[in-house]
Each structure stands twice: as structure tokens, then as C-alpha cells.
């Protein structure tokens, strides 16, 4: 199965809008590979269908875009002193306007996707931490009233204790969901950057992963749910 279909097939229900928009990023790369003009890259960066630029339908007015309309990339929140990665790289500076427009569009979209995924992860992490603290508190309270004997099958567990156990099972399930969310999005960034390098004949992948992706809490192995649980 190709990765574009895989990332859609393995999405957690209700979380689909928070995954890497792999399909849209591929559109920008395909536009570059097809040697489309800079105006198409600008349209893609702004979320406008290229067809709407030249072929407006009905009463819809024509949309005018230019490379200057592409928003500039920004530094990541984790390191506000670090300059934008595109301006800090000297490679590709001698390539044409069409290439530069596609490059700006691609990395602008990639940064927005990274911000989206990281923000969602931090929200879910906070929710899971709160649930864990609540469950630990409930378990301590239940333990003070007597721990059921696991070796005595005739002993019926109190409702309170059973509820706590179920809560931990659900928490473990949701932790696994979040871990898979992290892993498949991490794979998505690696694959789309590899595809960009191949089609654009650039060498951006490793530098972007190290400077922009892997420093974010969502992809930082030091702070991931798995490492904390260990």
C-alpha cells in the first residue's frame, strides 16, 4: 500500500484533520515536476485550486496570484532565535523563479502542518496526563478502603476498584493511539521530504528533519509518551 493511502487508512476516527496533509504536499511536488508556473505554486500555497486562476466558472471572478503572495516561512516556536530555515540555506539560490515559488509553497505548507500536528499532540498529552493523575488518585483512595485479593476468586471486586481498572485500560488504549499518531506522522515527514529531494534534486530532508521536525515535542524521543511511560 502506498503511503498516501496508508496514512488515510490508519487514521484514528475523529482525528483525521490533524494528520499530515500528505496528499496536498504531493500536489505541490507534482506541480514542480510538471514544470508549472510560479503562479500555480502561489495558488497552492494559498489553498487555491490552480484551475480557478485561469478557468473561473460561472459568475466566479478570476483569481490573480503571484509568487509574492506566498507567505514567508517562520522560525519554529521551540527556537525563536533560529532564522527561517529557507533563508539560512544557500543551496538552490541560483535556480529560477518557478522553482523558488514551489519551494516556498512546499515549505510554508510543511511548517503549517508541523505546527498543527504539534499543537494537537500537546493538547492530547495534557488530557492524558490529567486522566492519569485522576486515576492514580482514585486508586489510592480505593486502596485505603481495601485492595481485593487477586488470588481469591470468590472475592468480588468493589465497583470503585473495577472502575479504576477499566480507566487504566482505556488510558493505555488511548496512549497507544497517540503513539501511533506520532509514528505515522513522523514517517510522513520523512517520506514527503525524500520525495521533495528526489523531484527537486535538492538535499533538504536531513537538515529539515533535524532542525525543524525532531526538535518538536511531538517527535522528540526524550519526551514522547513511550519514553515517559518507560
UniProtKB/TrEMBL annotation:
The positions making up the signal sequence are: none
**One Pfam family name from the record?**
SPX
Annotated region described as Disordered, given as residue ranges: 58-91
Q: Where is the composition biased (Low complexity)?
A: 66-79
> Which PROSITE patterns does this one have?
SPX
Q: Which InterPro entries match?
A: SPX_dom, SPX_prot
Q: Where is the SPX domain?
A: 1-210
**Gene Ontology BP terms:** cellular response to phosphate starvation
Q: Per its UniProt record, what PANTHER family does this chain match? A: SPX DOMAIN-CONTAINING PROTEIN 3 (PTHR45978), SPX DOMAIN-CONTAINING PROTEIN 4 (PTHR45978:SF7)
**Name assigned to this protein:** SPX domain-containing protein
Q: What is the source species?
A: Scleroderma citrinum Foug A
Amino acid at each position: 500500500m502506498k503511503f498516501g493511502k496508508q496514512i488515510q487508512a490508519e487514521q484514528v476516527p475523529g482525528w483525521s484533520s490533524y494528520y499530515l496533509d500528505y496528499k496536498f504536499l504531493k500536489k505541490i511536488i507534482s506541480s514542480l515536476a510538471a514544470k508549472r508556473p510560479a503562479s500555480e505554486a502561489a495558488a497552492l500555497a494559498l489553498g487555491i485550486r490552480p484551475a480557478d486562476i485561469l478557468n473561473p466558472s460561472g459568475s466566479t471572478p478570476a483569481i490573480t496570484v503571484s509568487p509574492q503572495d506566498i507567505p514567508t516561512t517562520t522560525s519554529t516556536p521551540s527556537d525563536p532565535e533560529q532564522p527561517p530555515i529557507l533563508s539560512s540555506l544557500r543551496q538552490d539560490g541560483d535556480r529560477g523563479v518557478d522553482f523558488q515559488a514551489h519551494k516556498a509553497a512546499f515549505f510554508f505548507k510543511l511548517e503549517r502542518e508541523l505546527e498543527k500536528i504539534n499543537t494537537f499532540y500537546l493538547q492530547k498529552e495534557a488530557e492524558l496526563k490529567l486522566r492519569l493523575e485522576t486515576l492514580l488518585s482514585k486508586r489510592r483512595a480505593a486502596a485505603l478502603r481495601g485492595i481485593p485479593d487477586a488470588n481469591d476468586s470468590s472475592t468480588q471486586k468493589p465497583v470503585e476498584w473495577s472502575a479504576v481498572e477499566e480507566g487504566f485500560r482505556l488510558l493505555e488504549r488511548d496512549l497507544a493511539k497517540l503513539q501511533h499518531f506520532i509514528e505515522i506522522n513522523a514517517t510522513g515527514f520523512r517520506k514527503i521530504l525524500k520525495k521533495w529531494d528526489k523531484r527537486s534534486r535538492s538535499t533538504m530532508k536531513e537538515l529539515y528533519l533535524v532542525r525543524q521536525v525532531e526538535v518538536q515535542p511531538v517527535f522528540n524521543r526524550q519526551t514522547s509518551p513511550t519514553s515517559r511511560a518507560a
